[in-house]
Amino acid sequence: MRIESIAQFASLQEESRRRAADRRQQIMVCCGTGCLASGSKKVAEAFAEEVAKRGLDASVGMFVKTTGCHGFCERGPLVALLPSGILYTKVKPSNVGQIIDKTVLGGEVIPSLTYKNPADGQRISAYAEIPFYKHQLRVAMRNIGRIDPTDIRDAIAEGAYSGLAKALGEMTPEAVIEEVAIAGQRGRGGAGFNTARKWRSCRRAPGDRRFVLCNGDEGDPGAFKDRSIMEGDPHSVLEGMVIGAWAVGAHEGFIYVRDEYPLAVVHLTIAMEQARSYGLLGDNIMGSGFDFDIRISRGGGAFVCGESSALMRSLEGKIGEPRAKYVHSTDKGLFDLPTVLNNVETWAGIGAIIERGGAWFASMGTERSKGTKAFSLVGKVKNTGLIELPMGTTLRRIIFDIGGGILGDRPFKAVQTGGPSGGCVPEALLDLPVDYERLTEAGSMMGSGGMIVMDDRTCMVDVARYFLKFLTEESCGKCVPCREGLQQLLHIFDRLVEGRGRPDDIPAIERLSRGMQLGSLCELGKSAPNPVLSTLRYFRSEYEAHIFGKSCPAGICRELTAYEIVPDLCDGCHACFKACPVNAITGTIKELHRIHHDACISCGACFDVCPTAAIRTFPKVELKTEVV
Amino acid sequence: MPTLTVNGKKVTVGEDAVILDAARCAGVHVPTLCQFDGLEPWGGCRLCVVDMWQQGWDENWFKMVTACNHPVAEGMRVFTSSERVLETRRVVLDLLLARCPETPLIQRIAAEHGISETSYEVNPTPTDCILCGLCTRVCDHIGVSAIASVNRGWGREIAPPFHQAPPDCIGCLACAEICPTRCIPYSEAAGSRRIWDKDFEMLRDPVTGETVITKAQAEHFARRSGVPQGYFATSDGSKRRVMATTFTKLKVVG
Amino acid sequence: MTEQPCVDLVKAEAILGKYPPAEPSLIQVLQDVQRAYNYLPCDVLVKVAETLGVPLAHVFSVSTFYKAFALDPQGDTIIKVCTGTACHIRGAGQLVEELTRTLGIGPDQTTGDLKFTVKTVNCVGACAMAPVMIVGDKYWGNAKPARMTKYLGKGKGGDDEN
Question: In this structure, how many other beta carbons lie within 10 angstroms of the beta carbon of residue A206?
């Protein structure tokens, strides 16, 4: 049924909320990509089957729904229950009957399925009490995990499109921009450009035809917040784009989704079809007379297409070559027409900003970084997953209070933020409040929100090399400093990790980095030296160890590292033998095992599995002095 | 008509001018590789970088931009040889010299900037191609688009589709002649021209018999312009002779 | 480029019929062609160039620029090892090595019997499950080299338990 007026939308909201209320017992199974990989689809099917078989939907209003990513992927499959607010972790299909009987019907908690706090061993059953969720403030991700993304009425019951109703019903386009200006929202894709300022520039640009675009090309390795939003609450993106289109006078929009996110394309497509059928997208939206429709465009597998001008070339069917920055896309963007491009998370926040007001948004965060930010906390941290917090939260709180500290309680070494354009922040800066300016001052960057936690078993030279390798494959190749510079930096780092570093390598790295920062055409090349320079700034001694000591302090670089089993600690459990991919370990069960250096490839598989920490690393150069 | 300074020298240039135009006006040389008058600027080689200050900025705040495509503005101050500009150019040339160690043009410009050998790892398969894109840009400009850039990043190269004789090529030699390092080979013999592994029949001047143009190119121009193909198959010498004869038949009036 | 067999253009024509015949459709058309033929055959690219009115050189340029496209026939099952940062530090490299040991091919290579192609891919956004391997359509999180035969054997479908 098409909504033909704001009043009709209000009725639809009411009706959707009544329907939600009738679902007196909700069983919400997370089916984001992470939990799907842990088998949540079978869990959801088992619940649905059981409920149907026993007629519990009709008798007690029990309802099973699949939702988007709850964020706590480490503990998946996750099942959340309403109204009790209980969260169960690592749920298997075999737990389904028990959960229905004991918890949903019986009101009792099943301790073995609850979250166990690694800090004190306590079991926590309430979703809102789990440290991972307790400290969060979800705005962009407000409905993810609460709604079935393929059911628009579920989204509407939770507030979707109410911001749009307010914008179209009560506000002029200029008033909308003003509200976003009051909110102080800055782009959530990495650059942090003021959203209202961008919209204003576009609105003022001459011409009838303009576009609003959504950048769903989340290319930063380690970031997956945009995937979650597109999969788990596509309506938040659509709503934001309609509001933005209204504000700048655009009638056409595109959502550019990277090739690696097929489920996001599916959910966005379903959401758009449903929105159109309800008159919330397409012609005469909510009876306002405003027309706006969106098309989805899939990326071709190119990180550089996350750069706004390259993205637009890709939409035009061309190779993803960025354009000179002197031309602003708000004047000449897609097809050389005025264009607003914003990130998925930016769009997702707009509906809430309009509904609750810019002042509400600005009341959170720091002076220059307002609101909340989504982060993907991954790497060597216990609670890996997606979180959203007010800007200004410290790194320490994120990594230790919410993240639960380092995996295996190993020492914290650094957290990498901002992807290939960012840098590593060391332990000394753990009390840094996270906002755009503070991260940049520290030599890193907000970027997309990826936070990769590293422990003492991470080699910072290897990390820098990793990002260089990534970028050499992603550079479009147009400009000399980036194309040639990245290749030459990689050559230097290949030598460093193999123990063939030279005394003048560090000055050479610094000189080339400066040339790339100043000379490159786009941000890919300009910011490519950041991981290198930041690791050099905080971990220079590691570089020097590689160059002058021919050793890797973290014990990671294979050419520089040898492994051996410490006799006193080995209990002969045979785990290393099984883990070794090249049969370089000999030993019988319960007897001392031995690593044979001539066969060992220093991959570290044995180190990772040894339960008694009986394996140690030492510099390979010392091997040559041993009598074998 | 904006007025700006280049290295302190004041010049006034047209509304649509770029910094390179202003530099030329001021008699200041800015090195370029991928720039060519008549083609849209590309900004790929980064050799023409300059430091630029604009009105409204903090006195000590400069931006490094490419002269070939950055628009001028009233009151702009341009500096073409600041230390960081020269150093950036040196890094660009140093990198190019590693890629093209045996290319005379690069060796010369690098030497002019004080670099006699590269400080980087030399390309194991040296090439003369500096990936300036001039060949593909002129080919697009002519409306043929027979060749294009292939792959991305360091493996990027200029090639015809499928690395085979390009079906759309008309053998006009624009790519070969615009190439600053002359790295596109071609040959002519016995009334035939060969470029990009493709052979082209040459048309001969009806009077002198010299080869003038490929048949494909004459057809392309005829199609684009509406002028009969025969016009293009006449050598310049023959055209001049025809015009000279025509002029002799003109009467001078009053 | 290897010698290619002649391909049936019917599928290509159906794909082209779905999009406006202009340059902006190019990448979406190539996406569909890649999925339909498992690679981008030369004959199809020529047809695409003609129908969309894009110079063949530009079509080839786009085909080689984007990682999603292959110009040679791919294996029936594509194995993608995520090499995002989280996966890298949690051992993606070891997975690639194990694949090379097991299948005898490296990244961007296809087995002789055209059964498997191995690719390293950019972050797939399942970082909490690092390291991640995708075999066909199936995601395997917390992947371990020791379980490689299980991942390869199950291929498409199979039980979800890790």
Answer: 7
A414 DSSP 8-state letter: E
The answer to whether the Cβ–Cβ distance between A326 and B92 falls below 8 Å is no
Mutate to test the interface with A, among C132, C160, C162 (most CBs of A within 10 A): C160
Nearest to C42 among B149, B151, B162 (CB): B162
Beta bridge partners of B9: B6
**β-bridge mates for residue B77, sequence order:** B5, B53
**Overall pTM surpassing 0.90 (yes/no):** yes
Region of C108 please: left (phi>0), alpha (psi -120 to 50) or beta. left
Q: How far is A321 from chain B (nearest CA, A)?
A: 10
pLDDT at C157: 40
List the alpha helices (DSSP H) in A214-357. Answer: 225-232, 234-248, 262-277, 308-315, 344-356
- Residue in chain C nearest A33 by alpha carbon: C126
Find the DSSP H helices in C53-147: 56-65, 85-89, 92-103
> Residues C83, C85, C86, C88: what is their CA dihedral angle, to the nearest 10 degrees?
50
- Nearest-CB residue to A518 (from B42, B88, B155): B88
Q: How far is CA B130 from CA A429, A482, A521, C104, in A?
A: 44, 14, 16, 37
Rounded to 5 degrees, what are φ and ψ at B206? -65, -25
CB nearest A316 (choices: C23, C140, C161): C23
A430: phi then psi, degrees, rounded to nearest 5: -60, -25
Residues 151-190 in A contacting C (C-alpha not used; CB under 8 Å): none
Interface test with A, best of B154, B158, B181 (most A CBs within 10 A): B154
Indicate the helix (H) or strand (E) that contains B43. none
pLDDT at position A179 is 98
What digits encode the pLDDT tens for the residues A539-576?
A: 999 999 999 999 999 999 999 999 999 999 999 999 99
Q: Is B38 on the interface with A (CB under 8 A)?
A: no
- pLDDT at A254 (0 to 100): 98
- Residue C155 has a pLDDT of 44
Confidence of residue C5 (pLDDT cuts 50, 70, 90): low
* Residue A410 near residue A457, CB atoms below 8 Å: yes
The predicted model gives B144-150 an average pLDDT of 97
Nearest to A556 by CA among B133, B125, C94, B218: C94
DSSP string, B141-168: HHT----EEES-GGG-EEE-GGGS--TT
8 A C-beta contact, residue B120 and residue B98: yes
Task: Give A469-529 as a DSSP string.
Answer: HHHHHH----SHHHHHHHHHHHHHHHHHHTT---TTHHHHHHHHHHHHHHH-SSHHHHHTH
Bridging pattern class, strands B49-53 and B63-66:
antiparallel
Please state, in angstroms and rounded to a whole number, the distance separating the CA atoms of residues A82 and A85.
5
Q: State how far the Cα of B41 lies from the Cα of B23, in Å rounded to an integer.
A: 15
- What is the tens place of the pLDDT at every residue in A451-500? 999 999 999 999 999 999 999 999 999 999 999 999 999 999 999 999 99
In A, residues 517-556, which contact B (CB 8 Å cutoff)?
Answer: 518-521
Instruction: Mark yes or no for CB contact B150/C61 under 8 Å.
Output: yes
Residue range B207-233, pLDDT digits in tens: 999 999 999 999 999 999 999 998 899
Instruction: Locate A478 and state its tokens.
Output: 């147009």
How close, in Å, is residue B131 to chain C by CA atoms?
A: 14
Q: What does DSSP assign to residue A177?
A: H
CB proximity A628 to B under 8 Å: no
Report ipTM for this prediction. 0.95
pLDDT above 70 (res C156): no
Q: What are the pLDDT digits (tens) for B164-205?
A: 999 999 999 999 999 999 999 999 999 999 999 999 999 999
Contact (Cβ atoms closer than 8 angstroms) between residue B147 and residue B175? yes
